[in-house]
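Structure tokens please, single chain.
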Amino acid sequence: MAKTTGTVVTLSSGDTLWALAATTWGDPFWWPVIYAENRPELSLQNPDLLETGITLRIPALAGSVRSPTAADLQLKEDAYRIVADDYRKLGNPRAAGYAAEAARGFDK
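Here you go.
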């Protein structure tokens, strides 16, 4: 993945953000960053429901998931907050876990 620009992918049936993050970055726990990057354009603001055929942007990280910069870690923390808020609006019990992770913060 290029450092200066992101990547775009078109979703196929069965694709998940978890698998996309694992394939793209080698770490599925960064999937909220992909969701947060694309959230304004998603018709369903639910991380668990993705439409086949839509194009998602995979943001470029300043570092990498193995050696993230402070900006990358802040991006991940902010993304976890967005996921927690959307899950809370949907009544999804996973909201609490994502909110707790965001509150705890991320470090190298």
